[in-house]
């Protein structure tokens, strides 16, 4: 598929995988993006996940016919992008694998490559394909230590690896310039990579939710590495971003860069993520009551049941919103396990600068709210209220959510 005369898309969509990395749900699928640069010499940029070999080889062959591929540039050696390296080497013997030095042990260990197979490149090294010259920019820990980006000045295109990626298959267009939402005119109930949306949605709007969820789940720990990468690419005149997941960004590249910049600074918008676990429905009832109070104040709110939902969506919304309200019953004298798992996931991402309130029920001895407050204090969160710990069944008298909602409204003014 032609992106420009010289850049071709040969990636695939995966609508079968249930859990990305064995952890993160994929309700709208995912794309594994791979690109060819067709010049006097031919370079392939990253491969794809295993399981799509026939489709992948057919796409490559359609673009280059019987020509050979000279270079396989490995921006990222994680298996969702590098699993087909050995296959490509078998089909295109003589191909040189181009990667950062830190990729070498990973390429050897996962895919059986030897050092003779690999041309290591330093930060700033260049490679000419004829007309197109590629520059390799080391961007460690975006998302693994070996990660780099590849820049083509003549095409004004950044092959960015996982950065600027999104969950969601590319069912209705590869690039944001050719994107079609797929809805008949006036149809407003199309289920997309962004949930239900208006039929006139653009690609950025359609993928925003899945981009934030992807960032928070996969990249969230590496905000400082992203910021370092931003400095590394700040001098480039980027007209096109070719990431390894999600759409190619052209028209809306600036918005995507801005969103990733804000996320990697841990900046958030006004709003509340209420995430709770519940054993017998009382903490859940309190959570719903707070959500209703906040909604009536026109404060954006997301409500997540950690007992039944993967932590993925709670992570998305705590990266999106500046206020976290956690609900947990006291369980075995501690925090309810699904809520504890969420706190662990937050710690792993070094999330900071959020407002915080806790609440929850207990049967005979309260502990969860005290422990959640201690967590908030040691993680630099801003406690808006001491929280509410209520005995046994929920009632508005025992757990006054109007007071908590008022504390939040005051803080968000
Ligand atoms: Fe899409 Fe870090 O791999």
Describe the structure.
The protein is an alpha/beta fold. It is 32% helix and 24% strand. It is built from twelve helices and 25 strands. The chain has helices at residues 53-64, 79-82, 85-91, 104-111, 203-219, 223-233, 253-264, 282-296, 311-320, 337-348, 368-378, 401-412, and strands at 7-9, 12-14, 19-20, 24-25, 30-32, 35-38, 42-45, 71-73, 96-99, 118-120, 126-128, 133-138, 148-152, 157-161, 190-192, 195-197, 240-243, 269-276, 301-305, 321-327, 330-331, 334-335, 355-362, 382-383, 388-391. The strands form seven sheets. It has a six-stranded mixed beta sheet with strand order 1-6-7-8-9-10, covered by helices on one side. The relative contact order is 0.09. The model is unreliable at 185-196 (pLDDT under 50).
What topology does this entry show?
Layout: E1 7-9, E2 12-14, E3 19-20, E4 24-25, E5 30-32, E6 35-38, E7 42-45, H1 53-64, E8 71-73, H2 79-82, H3 85-91, E9 96-99, H4 104-111, E10 118-120, E11 126-128, E12 133-138, E13 148-152, E14 157-161, E15 190-192, E16 195-197, H5 203-219, H6 223-233, E17 240-243, H7 253-264, E18 269-276, H8 282-296, E19 301-305, H9 311-320, E20 321-327, E21 330-331, E22 334-335, H10 337-348, E23 355-362, H11 368-378, E24 382-383, E25 388-391, H12 401-412
Parallel strand pairs: 7-8, 8-9, 9-10, 14-17, 18-19, 18-20, 20-23, 23-24, 23-25
Antiparallel strand pairs: 1-6, 2-5, 3-4, 6-7, 11-12, 12-13, 13-14, 15-16, 21-22
